[in-house]
């Protein structure tokens, strides 16, 4: 039996989790306040994932960059590749929240979407 | 001269939520004055996620969170002026005068019944920290760096040392790393981090960035651009320990060493400020020592969650609405008011005073503790009677706590001049 | 071929250049930094000394007392902030009163007016926050405070408007005597001139020693300072000195002309002529000494600390004029305190000598006045309305701590010898000088600088040279 101490990063509460594993399988998550904490604990020890937030260049916008995020969490080890992919992207204004900037980034299945509106530069 | 019922100073999360709430309560003659070129305040540069879990039950980025409020304000047709700087607020016989200026209107002198202060806060700069060394380019507060990277599309530098483990510092450690910079270390003067636990995990640990607690910067090298900084360990009095110096070469030093509510306007107006929070002293209605002037958000006390700012601002908005609706009707000067006295580990509470007769059925008091505590009870005493008692596994100065008081508990003890809030051993 | 080349665009070089510009002379100022006022002139006590301290008959005494009068007039002509707030010298022991009397006598010999020794309760009536340990104090009503940035910039700008050329980012490497005068070699080419003015601050000995056998030796003496928030600006109303020692006038506490409170300087002899770093020990010393004058000096309200180097010459006095063996080479060397106060007098003195030697006539079209950038934070409502009407940019506040507008920043960039860096804007407008120390306004000022100078933000610097502010993503 193996245990791992984690801090849940789902929300700012930051619950201290204790995950118990047996032969690579999670048998127990303790310390969580909500169900999200349990699934975070399970996932973090087997297949850790993160939401990635960044920004990409905007052409012809009233501001030079637009903030973006992965619409769902992606495997942690793909973060670097995703950042590299985002560097090559430039979008044309206007941009609206939710616009897909990059589909299925790095084969993660997650789309990258805009998180703010950018108007056309007047 | 233009006359308003309510002027809200600041169009960030606090100002927006306050304006929306006031409008929803029937205040139609209101105006937001915002100094930046768009509404949303500092949220516009906080492109990371983690906002809105309480308010919207989903995880949003800063700009998304702001947009929800901007959209709601637009729906309600809340008027606002952008790039408008308030220069002065004064009060005469209840009516307030707000002096502001912008490109279009020139100098504005506006009269209003009520004011909501929502100016936010600023970062403590290098100068105020008295960090010795040269004064080269490459020293930025974390928030300035955040703006440069996330809104202007530039990097402040490539090799970074961060002093202070406040949330913005932690967030920027990750952000700079993702953008290809090398963040060598985060140093924290205190023996604990000032940021949220989750940020230490996902911003530092995820990227193997070391966090050095009880460390500070004792020298900055570089005559034109930063070439390195020297860290040293500090003792329990936060004084550097000779012999522990360690040099880090870098071209950038980011500072995340605390936020200070921006209360210059409030102080000039004669509003009583708290020495602990640097914000106004307020009562249960979030009203300051000047009648009809309310405060909310980071100008009142520095929050760690925008959700709480929105909730607080909403209350400020509805109390301001109430004040406007009762304008000149009831002059209740002599109201029973009691003080909330923080003791034993509790640094401050907001509000600091309560007028039980004006309380809603429930009142949320927010507070911070002065050190890291494990397994303590938060207790509130009304005389000898304990009216609140709750155990917390862990409390830290970086994380705001709250208790909820019942009106009936306070009105049951008429004449009391204070209630006491303190931490107690389990 | 120039008539005069001035080395150094600090307050002394700028004052000399301004006075020379009244004559029909072809004058050039060479400056190694990117702007005027980048050395000692930007990091000092910002005091206009009354002139009681220097040895009677010394250059320091003569130039200080005359300079004090001239600054008052110049501040009106050239529109820079000056205030005659009076200064005080404190003594903490009964035995020190004799020394105060000596100082008073010396001052009177130097021609300082209105000196008075104050004892008893009047001390605290004049300055309620002074220590109760004060036994007596010398009051010099002619002491004043000035903005050293704006004063230097005003002098240089006025010189420039009157035809003096300024070349920045150019370091003098060698000076050679020629048949007609001197050849000044720089990293970017050489300049021929009849006369040279050596106003090179802590490097003045180096240049003197290139042309004269009468060697000078300058030791940079570092002074560290703490500048406090405007909230602390009324802690004292006079400039408060302590009885001077061998190392200088000691730590003073003074309001600044912009309403902050300043404490400093320490005094530490240095080898490094660029050693303007602050130190923990220096700040600690400063704090300890300042508290001697006033226990409650609000050092916790510090918004920035900085250090400057005084150019202390071993002879102890200013070195002014031509060395015997180097005709046409005019020194303004060893300009330590009271250098700022003396600069206008030094300017007049050297310009007179040079114009006589070269037989230069006065110009008939000399422009003797200039107007500074409008200051919105100090303007009346009517003035603000008028400014915004003329140019809406004066309604757009960029620096919120000091209420500096886009109009002022643009003006600072566009005017003669305009700002080219973040610090250049700061010294001209005070944008970034306030309590947040440019946290909010730096990105916006950069945007304006890039736009006005037609540069990429990546090229912008804090203070010229390699002090780049940004890198690419």
TrEMBL record, chain A:
Alphabetically ordered keywords of this record: Iron, Iron-sulfur, Metal-binding
Name of the protein: DUF1667 domain-containing protein
InterPro entries: CPE0013-like_sf, DUF1667, Mopterin_OxRdtase_4Fe-4S_dom
Organism: Blautia hansenii (Ruminococcus hansenii)
PANTHER family documented for this protein: DUF1667 DOMAIN-CONTAINING PROTEIN (PTHR39450:SF1), MOLYBDOPTERIN OXIDOREDUCTASE, 4FE-4S CLUSTER-BINDING SUBUNIT (PTHR39450)
Domain 4Fe-4S Mo/W bis-MGD-type: residue ranges: 1-60
Positions in coiled-coil regions: none
From TrEMBL, chain B:
Domain of life: Bacteria
Keyword line: Oxidoreductase
Pfam families membership: Pyr_redox_2
Source organism: Blautia hansenii
Protein's name according to its UniProt entry: FAD-dependent oxidoreductase
Domain FAD/NAD(P)-binding residue range list: 4-307
UniProtKB/TrEMBL annotation, chain C:
Pfam families: DAO, Fer2_BFD
Domain BFD-like [2Fe-2S]-binding: 397-451
Gene3D superfamilies with a match to the protein in the record: BFD-like [2Fe-2S]-binding domain, D-Amino Acid Oxidase, subunit A, domain 2, FAD/NAD(P)-binding domain
Organism domain of life: Bacteria
Residue ranges occupied by any FAD dependent oxidoreductase domain in the UniProt entry: 3-352
Protein name per the record: NAD(P)/FAD-dependent oxidoreductase
UniProt source species: Blautia hansenii (Ruminococcus hansenii)
């Amino acid at each position: 039996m193996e245990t791992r101490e984690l801090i849940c990063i789902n929300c700012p509460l930051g619950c201290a989790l204790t995950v118990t594993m047996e032969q690579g399988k999670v048998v127990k998550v303790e310390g969580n306040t909500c169900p999200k904490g349990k699934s975070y604990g399970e996932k973090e020890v087997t297949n850790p994932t993160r939401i990635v937030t960044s920004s990409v260049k905007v052409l012809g916008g009233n501001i030079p960059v637009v903030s973006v995020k992965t619409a769902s969490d992606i495997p942690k080890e793909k973060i670097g590749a995703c950042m590299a992919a985002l560097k090559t992207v430039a979008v044309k204004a206007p941009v609206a929240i939710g616009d897909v900037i990059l589909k299925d980034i790095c084969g993660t299945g997650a789309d990258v979407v805009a998180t703010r509106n950018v108007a056309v530069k007047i | 001269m233009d006359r308003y019922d309510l002027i809200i100073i600041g169009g960030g999360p606090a100002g927006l939520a306050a304006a929306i709430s006031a409008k929803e309560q029937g205040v139609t003659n209101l105006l937001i004055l915002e100094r930046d070129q768009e509404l949303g305040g500092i949220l516009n540069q906080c492109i990371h996620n983690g906002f809105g879990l309480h308010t919207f039950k989903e995880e949003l980025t800063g700009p998304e969170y702001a947009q929800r409020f901007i959209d709601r304000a637009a729906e309600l047709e809340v008027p606002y002026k952008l790039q408008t700087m308030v220069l002065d607020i004064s009060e005469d016989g209840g009516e307030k005068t707000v002096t502001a200026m912008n490109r279009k209107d020139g100098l504005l002198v506006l009269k209003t019944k009520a004011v909501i202060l929502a100016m936010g806060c600023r970062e403590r700069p290098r100068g105020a920290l008295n960090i010795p060394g040269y004064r080269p380019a490459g020293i930025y507060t974390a928030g300035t760096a955040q703006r440069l990277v996330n809104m202007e599309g530039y990097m402040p530098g490539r090799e970074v040392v961060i002093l202070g483990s406040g949330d913005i510092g932690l967030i920027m450690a990750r952000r700079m790393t993702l953008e290809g910079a090398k963040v060598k270390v985060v140093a924290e003067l205190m023996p604990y981090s000032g940021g949220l636990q989750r940020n230490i995990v996902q911003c530092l640990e995820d990227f193997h960035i070391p966090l050095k607690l009880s460390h500070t910067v004792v020298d900055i090298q570089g005559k034109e651009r930063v070439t390195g900084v020297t860290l040293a360990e500090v003792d329990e009095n936060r004084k550097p320990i000779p012999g522990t110096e360690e040099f880090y070469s870098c071209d950038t030093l980011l500072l995340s060493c605390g936020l200070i509510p921006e209360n210059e306007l409030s102080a000039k107006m004669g509003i009583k400020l708290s020495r602990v929070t640097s914000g106004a002293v307020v009562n249960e209605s979030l009203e300051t020592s000047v009648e009809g002037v309310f405060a909310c958000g980071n100008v009142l006390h520095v929050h760690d969650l925008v959700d709480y700012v929105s909730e607080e601002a909403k209350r400020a908005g509805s109390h301001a609405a109430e004040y406007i609706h009762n304008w000149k009707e009831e002059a209740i000067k002599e109201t029973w008011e009691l003080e909330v006295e923080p003791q034993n580990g509790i640094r401050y509470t907001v509000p600091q005073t309560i007028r039980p007769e004006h309380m809603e059925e429930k009142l949320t008091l927010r507070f911070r503790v002065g050190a890291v505590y494990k397994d303590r009870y938060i207790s509130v005493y009304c005389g000898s009677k304990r009216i609140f008692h709750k155990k917390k596994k862990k409390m830290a100065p970086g994380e705001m706590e709250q208790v909820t008081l019942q009106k009936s508990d306070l009105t049951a003890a008429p004449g009391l001049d204070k209630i006491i809030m303190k931490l107690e051993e389990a | 071929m120039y008539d005069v080349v001035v080395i150094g665009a600090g307050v002394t070089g700028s004052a000399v250049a301004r006075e020379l510009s009244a004559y029909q002379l072809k004058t050039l100022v060479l400056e190694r930094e990117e702007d005027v006022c980048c050395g000692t002139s930007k990091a000092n006590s910002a005091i206009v000394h009354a002139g009681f301290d220097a040895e009677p008959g010394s250059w320091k005494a003569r130039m200080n007392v005359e300079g004090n009068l001239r600054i008052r007039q110049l501040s009106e002509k050239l529109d820079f902030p000056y205030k005659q707030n009076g200064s005080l010298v404190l003594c903490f022991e009964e035995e020190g009163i004799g020394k105060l009397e000596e100082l008073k006598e010396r001052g009177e010999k130097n021609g300082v007016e209105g000196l008075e020794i104050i004892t008893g309760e009047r001390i605290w009536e004049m300055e309620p926050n002074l220590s109760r340990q004060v036994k007596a104090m010398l009051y010099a009503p002619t002491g004043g405070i000035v903005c050293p940035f704006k004063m230097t910039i005003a002098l240089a700008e006025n010189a420039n408007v009157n035809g003096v050329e300024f070349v920045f980012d150019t370091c003098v490497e060698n000076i050679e005597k020629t048949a007609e005068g001197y050849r000044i070699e720089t990293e970017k080419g050489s300049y021929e001139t009849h006369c040279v003015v050596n106003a090179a601050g802590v490097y003045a000995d180096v240049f003197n020693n290139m042309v004269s056998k009468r060697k000078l030796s300058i030791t940079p003496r570092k002074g560290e300072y703490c500048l406090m928030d405007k909230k602390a600006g009324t802690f004292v109303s006079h400039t408060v000195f302590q009885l001077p020692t061998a190392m200088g006038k000691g730590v003073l506490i003074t309001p600044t002309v912009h309403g902050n409170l300043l404490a400093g300087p320490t005094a530490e002899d240095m080898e490094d002529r660029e050693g303007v770093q602050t130190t923990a020990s220096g700040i600690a010393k400063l704090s300890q000494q300042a508290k001697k004058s006033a226990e409650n000096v609000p050092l916790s309200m510090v918004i920035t600390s900085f250090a400057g180097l005084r150019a202390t010459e071993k002879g102890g006095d200013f070195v002014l004029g031509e060395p015997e063996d180097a005709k046409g080479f005019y020194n303004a060397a060893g300009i330590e305190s009271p250098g700022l106060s003396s600069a206008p007098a030094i300017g007049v003195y050297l310009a007179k000598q040079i114009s006589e030697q070269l037989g230069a006539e006065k110009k008939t079209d000399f422009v003797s006045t200039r107007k500074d950038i409008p200051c919105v934070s100090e303007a009346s409502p009517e003035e603000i309305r008028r400014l915004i009407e003329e140019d809406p940019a004066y309604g757009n506040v960029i620096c919120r701590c000091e209420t500096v507008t886009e109009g002022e920043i643009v003006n600072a960039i566009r005017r003669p010898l305009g700002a080219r860096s973040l610090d250049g804007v700061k010294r001209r407008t005070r944008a970034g000088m306030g309590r947040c120390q440019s946290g909010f306004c730096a990105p916006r000022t950069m945007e304006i600088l890039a736009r006005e100078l037609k540069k990429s933000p990546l090229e912008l610097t804090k203070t010229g040279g390699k002090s780049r502010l940004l890198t690419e993503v």
